[in-house]
Write a structure and sequence with these properties.
Pfam families: Pyr_redox_3. InterPro entries: Auxin_biosynth/cation_transpt, FAD/NAD-bd_sf. This is NAD(P)/FAD-dependent oxidoreductase. Its EC number is 1.14.13.-. GO terms for molecular function: oxidoreductase activity. This protein is of the alpha/beta class. It folds into three domains: 4-135 and 345-412, FAD/NAD(P)-binding domain; 138-339, FAD/NAD(P)-binding domain (3-Layer(bba) Sandwich); 423-448. The chain is 27% helix and 20% strand. The chain is built from ten helices and 24 strands. Strand 12 and strand 13 form a beta hairpin. The radius of gyration is 24 Å and the shape is globular. The structure holds flavin-adenine dinucleotide.
């Protein structure tokens, strides 16, 4: 079957795919972005109704475009999706929506890759997997499906009215878990929240948002945690104008805090005795950021208002000092569990040799072990900020650079092949350091 030819195939039309397309376009590299749903679909249909960005509009964006919002406001999920769609439109990103890539294989005996897609085969010299860090919702195999409990993942949660009447157990206290628990409690539900290890920066301190502090203190650029070191989730919220995630306030509002969720047996769920330790570690993280911020202010002679009250945490609530280690779900009136424990990866379509025994990509800054295959949007791909809106743009720039370097070698080789016909326009472009706008190379070939 004939296949369409291009230079770079980008799989995924979320923020990672769009950023990749922008950098390829700037370099004049022909490419196609293939997205199985709509542009930025995850922001539209995988988030709850009231979700707003975790960072203010001035920060959570690409460098080249501002939100049409108060810079200190938090964009709603639809506004983020609209922003990304408009951004892609601003440089005519060659995105094909409604097309799924079902497999990518290396060509045998010749360079490049062949992708099978629902829109027909595509051949490309390079492939960028921009399918992101949040692919497969994880619901641990803890509570059996026939236990009479309504279970859903945070990505399927929309609003309190969606859940059957009764109490709700929220498992996971990263940004999703705490925001969903808070919203459910505010709607009048009885809520239990299982809290694991977390970082919880102040929403703002001394008149600057935490995004600013993490930036000036170099923490968004922190390199990946050492192998084996635990990745700790970050609990922040832009909801209701943005306020610090404070587990004492959540307990004060009537939410029962628990330690890490454990096994389930005969209607009873067990919890680790680690709630106090998790809260204390989160507090330590919070306080250390305040201290680093104070030191930064002093060192640089900044005129930012002091905020001594931010250092006062208050006493621990009863559920922390006298922890609940098991909950009989029916007796507690709990009818639903929201699992806010994160996402897994699914690269089953990418049939190349660059995955470890657990299916995780082996790569260095997104450059895979399979020459010609790149990843984008991975957590900690190059730094803490990698999977976020602003961070992925910089990683995309790096990947575009790596592709340009490889194209340069290929162009040199083609130019030195005496028996080959004159360089194709594509290679000639590369040799001249082409600056024309990118777009898909639409030639088709009968290559098998
Ligand atoms: C609840 C939540 C809130 C978040 N809030 C923020 C925030 O406020 N600020 C911030 O910076 N970051 C935030 N993030 C993190 C991150 O910015 C988002 O998850 C973002 O959607 C990641 O973008 P991406 O392009 O890497 O991946 P995705 O948005 O997941 O895009 C990947 C795309 O690939 C497509 N795809 C997958 N497989 C295939 C295939 N085989 N063929 C074709 N297409 C395929 C999918 O349909 C999808 O559209 C949040 C994440 C979550 C889960």
């Amino acid at each position: 079957m004939s296949s369409e030819q291009t230079e770079v195939l980008v799989v995924g039309g979320g923020q990672a795919g769009i950023a990749m397309s922008e950098h390829l376009t700037r370099g004049g590299v022909p490419h196609i972005v293939v997205e199985r749903d709509r542009i930025a679909e995850r922001w539209r249909s995988w988030r709850w109704d009231s979700l707003v960005a975790n960072g203010p509009a001035w920060h959570d964006r690409f460098p080249g475009k501002e939100f049409d919002l108060d810079p200190d406001a938090f964009a709603g999920k639809e506004q983020v999706a609209d922003y990304l769609a408009a951004y892609a439109g601003s440089f005519d990103a060659p995105i094909r929506t409604g097309v799924e890539v079902t497999s990518v294989r290396r060509n045998a005996g010749r360079p490049g890759f062949r992708a099978a897609t629902s829109g027909g085969p595509i051949e490309a010299r390079f492939v960028v997997a921009a399918t992101g860090a949040f692919q497969t919702p994880i619901i641990p195999d803890v509570v059996p499906g026939d236990a009479g409990i309504h279970q859903l993942h945070s990505s399927s949660y929309r609003n309190p009215a969606q859940l059957p009447p009764g109490g709700v157990m929220v498992v996971g206290a990263g940004s999703s878990g705490v925001q969903i628990a808070d919203e459910l409690r505010a709607s009048g539900r009885e809520v239990h929240l299982a809290v694991g290890p977390h970082d919880r920066p102040p929403r703002s301190y001394r008149d600057r948002d935490f995004c600013w502090w993490l930036g000036v203190l170099g923490k968004w650029d922190a390199a990946a945690p050492a192998a084996g070191a635990e990745h700790v989730t970050i609990a922040v919220s832009g909801a209701n104008g943005g306020r610090t995630v404070d587990f004492r306030r959540l307990a004060g509002s009537g939410i029962t805090l628990l330690g890490r969720a454990g096994a389930y047996r005969d209607g009873v769920m067990a919890f680790a005795p680690d709630l106090a330790a998790n809260i204390a570690a989160g507090d330590a993280n919070y306080l250390s950021l305040l201290r680093e911020a104070d030191a930064f202010v002093e060192r640089n002679g900044l005129d930012l208002p002091e905020e001594p009250e931010a250092h006062v945490l208050g006493g621990d609530p009863d559920c922390v000092t006298d922890p609940v280690l098991s909950v009989d779900l029916a007796a507690a009136g709990i009818t639903s569990i929201v699992w806010a424990v994160g996402f897994g990866a699914d690269y089953s379509w990418l049939e190349v040799d660059t995955f470890d025994e657990r299916g995780r990509p082996r790569h260095q800054r997104g450059v895979s072990r399979e020459l010609g295959v790149y990843f984008l949007g991975l957590p900690w791909q190059s730094r803490r900020g990698s999977s976020f809106l602003w961070g992925v743009w910089h990683d995309a720039k790096y990947i575009a650079d790596q592709i340009a370097i490889q194209r340069g070698y290929l162009a040199y080789d083609e130019a030195r092949q005496p028996t080959l016909p004159a360089p194709t326009p594509r290679i000639a472009d590369a040799l001249r350091g082409a600056s024309r706008r990118g777009g898909p190379a639409l030639a088709t070939t009968g290559a098998a």
